[in-house]
Amino acid sequence: MSTDSTPAELARRLEALESRIAYQEHWLDTLDVAVAGQEQRMSRLERLNALMQERLRDQQRALQENDTATPRAEDEMPPHY
After folding, report:
1. Checking CA distances to 11, which of 28, 33, 38, 40 falls within 20 to 30 Å?
2. CA angle centred on 26, ends 11 and 7, rounded to 5°
3. Burial level of 15, CB count in 10 A (0-12/13-18/19+)?
């Protein structure tokens, strides 16, 4: 920065800096809202994932119990033997 800047030049530079700061603050606010929304969505997806995993385990257990409790048709001897 040169020492021979005029007050008008300094005022213009200050205004430009203030404008850039305002623009950056706007984008920071926008990004903050976006990140908060993504965090909420991720939280919902994690809960949904946990629920789906639990249901899948329940179904696998039910299938295993059903397989051991009831003989299947292919496990039985045909009538001509």
Report:
1. 28
2. 0
3. exposed
pTM, to two decimals: 0.57
SS (H, E, C) 15-58: HHHHHHHHHHHHHHHHHHHHHHHHHHHHHHHHHHHHHHHHHHHH
- CA-to-CA dists, residue 73 to 17, 62, 69, 79, angstroms: 81, 19, 13, 12
The residue behind tokens 């409790």 is: 69
* pLDDT tens, position by position, 28-40: 999 999 999 999 9
